[in-house]
Amino acid sequence: MSGVRVMVVDDHPMWREGVARDLAEAGHQVVASCGEGRQAVRVVAAARPDVVVLDLQLPDVSGVEVIRGLRAAWPQVRVLMLSASGEQQGVLDAVKAGATGYLLKSAALAEFLDAVRRTAAGEPVFTPGLAGLVLGEYRRLAAAGGPEPGQDTAPRLTDRETEVLRLVAKGMSYKQIAERLGLSHRTVQNHVQNTLGKLQLHNRVELTRYAIERGLDE
């Protein structure tokens, strides 16, 4: 995916300008650049970004509050956290609020640009080590309060959609799922998008939690 529409939200002007420059040089369109969270929430609907690259620590409101505000104002937006902090609770709070991915600022440029593309495609992207943390938390929540047997009224999925969903729950990427099942990357994306629509979920992070709650990662 190229030409992703991106909003950059960070309170450090030089860092924000550098990220915007890197994105533009990679062929993406930087539609807005904000130094405060409230400003980002005000302009997101007009800017219509595919992805918001968001710092967790902002001077006016927390990044978690900004995620909620962005999704309320522009529900289809996907949020990639780009933070200097990899503190576990901050990561989990961001994902629970609706962030699609979480990357540390120490990531290499190629890793960051790949994360932007994958976030725009709806794939959860995490700095190595953080994906396991998020999956572990979802499993803990599922064990503490999963749905009662016989009370699941979710729409019926096809066998292939269920198969893909099981692999999503294991934390596999689209590429890995495609290789495992002998499908194209695009076909896997279509199955995931169809499943999201049927279950009325917004992204693969929510889909992963749904699958884990139903024991599909076993």
UniProtKB/TrEMBL annotation:
It comes from the Bacteria. The keyword Phosphoprotein applies. The keyword Phosphoprotein applies. This is DNA-binding response regulator. It comes from Micromonospora gifhornensis. The modification 4-aspartylphosphate is found at residue 55. PANTHER family: TWO-COMPONENT RESPONSE REGULATOR. Keywords: DNA-binding, Phosphoprotein.
